[in-house]
Queue: 2 jobs
Job 1
Amino acid sequence: MKLIIVGGVAGGASAAARARRMSEQAEIILFERGPDVSFANCGLPYYLGGEIKERSKLLVTTPDKLKARFEIDVRVRTSVEKIDRANKLVYVRDLATNREYTESYDKLILSPGAAPLRPNLPGIDLPGIYTLRNLQDTDHIKASLNGKIKNAVVIGGGFIGLELIENFLKLGIETSLVEYNDQVLPPFDKEMTTPIVEVLQRRGANLLLGDAAESFTTSSQGIVVHLKSGRKLVTQLAVLGVGVRPENKLAIDAGLEVGKRGGIHVNAHMQTTDPDIYAVGDAVETTDFLFGGVTQIPLAGPANRQGRIAADHALGKETRYRGTQGTAIVGVFEITAAMTGASEKWLRQNNRSFRAVYVHPANHASYYPGAEQMTIKLLFDPDNGRVLGGQVVGGSGADKRTDVLAMAIQAGMTVFDLEEAELAYAPAYGSAKDPINMAGFVAANWIRGDHPQMGMGEWLALPETDRPFLLDVRTPTEFEAGHLPGATNIPVDDLRKRLEEIPKDKEIATYCQVGQRGYIALRILMQSGFRAMNLSGGYKAYRLFVPEGKGESAKLK
Amino acid sequence: MKLIIVGGVAGGASAAARARRMSEQAEIILFERGPDVSFANCGLPYYLGGEIKERSKLLVTTPDKLKARFEIDVRVRTSVEKIDRANKLVYVRDLATNREYTESYDKLILSPGAAPLRPNLPGIDLPGIYTLRNLQDTDHIKASLNGKIKNAVVIGGGFIGLELIENFLKLGIETSLVEYNDQVLPPFDKEMTTPIVEVLQRRGANLLLGDAAESFTTSSQGIVVHLKSGRKLVTQLAVLGVGVRPENKLAIDAGLEVGKRGGIHVNAHMQTTDPDIYAVGDAVETTDFLFGGVTQIPLAGPANRQGRIAADHALGKETRYRGTQGTAIVGVFEITAAMTGASEKWLRQNNRSFRAVYVHPANHASYYPGAEQMTIKLLFDPDNGRVLGGQVVGGSGADKRTDVLAMAIQAGMTVFDLEEAELAYAPAYGSAKDPINMAGFVAANWIRGDHPQMGMGEWLALPETDRPFLLDVRTPTEFEAGHLPGATNIPVDDLRKRLEEIPKDKEIATYCQVGQRGYIALRILMQSGFRAMNLSGGYKAYRLFVPEGKGESAKLK
């Protein structure tokens, strides 16, 4: 059995090690075009920022170590140029010597990864404009950072873009972000990214959302980035983080099927359309775990597991990849943003029925020092309560609740299960009613008809004339500090005595600061003969949609 | 509809608020014997230690607030003395005035809690010997702490006992712990408590495990605690944390059924044997979620959820409590210990088949600064892989992995599901192969027959003559620093070349530092014709069973 693996990072390295553990007899050759195998690509921005001090820490393993421990014949700086499927051969080029040769295979695993997009814009190849994929890119950027750079532009506000901005700002570099979308973190629903935008602004980033680079020129001050809006940014360093495209050339040339977005098509065993050729990692399209469609999400966790599965199956084990649910996380200064499963925008685009609730709990008992708030947006099926997605943004503990929701999605659990989740509680770790329980209560109460709600996004989309009577049930002090346009203030504790002030003939929308008092007010109203609903997540949710000092609310100030 | 609730903390307060939200019409009376409702009992040790500075923070709500917001007639310092089930009346005494009166009820919810045990020992009622249940106890202890106390004794090493020791030590008070069992945290398996014992010792606690107080006397220096071992401790303050007993007198007097351990018997709707009387919280026995038997676990999370369920059902909603899985957590200085589901000792006592694996992963990518190690003990069903229990002890992130395992247990997930769990990964939050994935891999590989293992506890229980050939596959440096008695050292990377040094006719037990190299060595051996197994969790697991400087290993030093 001769197994050839193309690509030595994440999926490829996982496949190689797993294959050896499963078979001492197999001959395993790993080809890697670059000089390094299994480097920590997720750590690159933190090495640039100096958070990770030693470059050697990024080298998770080396060819020598893979040889010693796993008897893997690792050939770096070696490019696989062609696959001859009929004869089960790969054509290989040693990049150091330019020597070309062939290797035969019984099974072939492709783990070529995805390359950063470098859009075909005028001036894109000027010096000082980088992408970030590997240690060599990192070395180049790091060299230019060393004391000489005062400002930088990051183009693209996705995961890597945000990690770069944070690290550049920490180095004291004035940094601008240009993002084509009108939000950072495009996989997230826009309102859930507001805390990220706010923390970047507090830390001094110059954010240009809804704008795009159109061309690059040079001036005496450095690179000039010409934007679609007509603005110009002069910078010493520009880094592109505008997405990736699967490295699919080898697969396409070999006649393997490739999806619309370029991902190599694989079945649940990670086999391509040639059953002796597997593909894993950022280069493949896979199955959406929740809805079964095709998806293409470049993430390290799935890449590693796919590598294992491909190796197992190539060696005769019956294993299957269950699909990807898109769990992802990013930290930007003190704010964490994480998601799992489907977003609202995805559900809308795909005409799936859903409901969304917002809660804003503290990460642990509020009477214990250091509590930090988070916002959870929980998306669920209104018919059966199945959890469809979760987004969590805030301070400590956002990662924990995301992982809990990831498990709920994997297990097909419902919001009723979240109500009953028995999570670890002591004052420093959580609350007797954990944020997950709270999200479950709010969602389950809606399904049971006890807590009719409207999302703040839907509220804002209603024509003003169609809006229900809007009742702010917070204290007068809170109301004065800022409220939704058109709201009437009756504090919840006074509501029972002041019901006659509320119109009987109109629907009532209640809200408070985070949603809980609004819910209590709603219950009082519903049981007193009013038609009512609660604006989910209250004023805090409103401020995610309409940040302080912007839009509708600005006129209140 | 007139609802009477007895007990205003956790379950009782939850029931009252929920009942009002579900019914504006109900008359709701809440009786509480003490002066406070809904105080933060889990915060009391941290108020003693000064972590929580303001006493007022412990008052989560007040009678006035419950009246204003929920129209609940709260009567504190009022004791319910008797239930007349035939006439649906409670006999009540106002403790301030001693006035007695009756109230009728349609539905009655009992949430009396559990009282700290105060064993009937000579001298137990001497001044300076406390239990900790409520704010009044706390005030007394705090008054005696104020500057005057140099030393203290905590009797009982459970959750509250450990929280007290930590807080006393932080105040600079010399503190001894007396615990009847030979371990702290009796619900945990003993080896998993070793890091807690070690951190307490590092922080200067005097630990007396396997000992017990037999009597108390006074001397000029303070209280003398006479121990079963013959030792005496002289102290200025003694706090008992030796467990609780359900406050079941009211229920027993009313002829309601009570279980063997004193918990009031309830069905899934939290109804006692009288369908108009519910009971919730620390006073009840409930169902073991995993195995369906009776259990009695006093925890705040379940108490709160039971209160909701009782209120819902009393008001005509069809709700059910799913049982308790015993998720619990405690922090002691920098170490967190948490568990969910069944322990090994429970599974043994109940003759359940199980396997246990240990992994020692870092909480996040080890190349990112600040990574902290944890140990996960995963218990699972060897037939189908169902997760039966998890214990996690270590630094940051132990709580997160416990919650993930809690969800897995709730959902009936298997170790195969843990392998595939898609958790949030970025270098500061986790690893591409999360600790949960790692535990899943190790367990699932065992079930698949790819990774035969033996627990370190079983290894140590084997007579020396019956032990397999013991192979330490770490580096010589690691081996020299400490190893299992009788081990032969062949580093994993040399193993393929040195197979002839290993006996063909004996079973081989491999081990390394944490288990991974032992597994690779095992795979090499198994595929080279040896019968082999890996000691799960390696040398680190050994050191949980046999701490540095103790037992078997001491002679190696």
Job 2
Amino acid sequence: MSTSNTSALNDFLQQCQQRVDERLGTALDAEIASTQLLEAMRYACLGGGKRIRPVLAYGSALAVGGELAAADNAAAAIELIHSYSLVHDDLPAMDDDDLRRGKPTVHKAFDEATAILVGDALQSLAFQIISTDRDTLCANNRLAMVQLLSQKAGATGMVGGQSLDFEAVGEKLNIQQLEQMHSLKTGALIRCAVLLGGMSCESASDSQMTALAAYADNIGLAFQVQDDILDVIGDTSQLGKPQGSDSDKNKPTYVSLLGLDEAKALANSLSDKAIAALQEFPGSADPLRELAAFVVSRFH
Amino acid sequence: MSTSNTSALNDFLQQCQQRVDERLGTALDAEIASTQLLEAMRYACLGGGKRIRPVLAYGSALAVGGELAAADNAAAAIELIHSYSLVHDDLPAMDDDDLRRGKPTVHKAFDEATAILVGDALQSLAFQIISTDRDTLCANNRLAMVQLLSQKAGATGMVGGQSLDFEAVGEKLNIQQLEQMHSLKTGALIRCAVLLGGMSCESASDSQMTALAAYADNIGLAFQVQDDILDVIGDTSQLGKPQGSDSDKNKPTYVSLLGLDEAKALANSLSDKAIAALQEFPGSADPLRELAAFVVSRFH
């Protein structure tokens, strides 16, 4: 990526992060009677995080000719689902992590009961936000977005993948089984973010949505392969969590199955395929193209 | 209540329980790749439970002149939210209960990680079902139902009330604070069930919905007062959980604040008010009327 591309991408990332933080901040300043719950929800969601999923949603909205504002609710909803999953993943009964984004995890900063409730409340809030009225989008589109988010967040998506991941500890998975697990655990929400961004724009055509879906499939898997690579080569200060924490738990990874070099080659190839899927889009899809390169070059 | 009314109510309860069990069974037989997750979700939701919230939704649909089938998705969605909240409530970090409906709780029958994921997946499934296409209901109504369910399930509803409940352990609440907590923790979902049943029927008028809302407010509170009464006078085999388990934890209850007799009088008065709110409805609201009496006469 050239320096000017990097700079344009950085501007875009920052703009998207500000937008989604503002939307989340508004949503988390509402009539929540329990002050402890509100504080912990804000702790879990605000001030940190790469916001990759919101950025993808915004990028898709631009790609199909929409404006950034069109994707505000989709971006916030998908980030809320992601945030809730992190809070629950970190619990002692799950991954038992003390650090997240360099800060104590929610159950460490508050307590376990609060962390459970925070995750539950963030999930509800995601569905509240994505179903909220916005004059420019018809009820049918918004309803389709609720349906997609619920499918990709739950047992047929992210949570299903997390359960497969638990079932796999200590098991020998082959590459197809590993792909199925990741396709649900991480890929489902990444794909969902890309699609929701497009669906946020009434004007998106069927062929545009088909191209976005192909982009989404490849970027979703690339993201997870890169996560596995970072788990091996990253260090704790960059990752915000102890390096090697997945491989320590005897979980199968792309690196353990393919070796580091082949895993890197796979990530790059998936990124290239994602970019190729966008060939019929004009320059409006440049942020998505740059994001595909960014995903496999990121350090954390 | 006369014997014939009791018999009619029993028939209605059974019919509603069968309908919602069938809808839940279909939803929990879908493309869920993790067999352990699917099994645990079915364990948490099927085969047991009074299905009071679904029954209220069905009763409301009938009251406004709709058919039972109209409320199938609303009934299933609200029961999924209720079921997920029980699974998470029972966790060691929350109420730490080993028994639920006379069976081992989900984290006892499976494990804690599974119980956390089951709750998360059931919540997503609720939003999936309530947003699902049904030819007879317009997208605007379904979207309004998603909005209501998300508000009443999350931090501004049930989860917010649970958090207030935790904050209240060992504290001296007055009756207003206790009402606020219960109004969110238990009342929000009960009210939501009544309203969703009405909203499931395109034909429901504004005045019908206003009457249902008044019914819902009173029945919601009556339900919680009766829960507190049962916690004192019930026994373990009837409740399916150890008697006195709430008062043991030094949580304030209506009985501890008002005494047993006054709590019983309050429950009956609320039930009467709920029935009075239905005065403009014809005989189609008889199931709701009988349910109002049933709620304060139930033994578990």
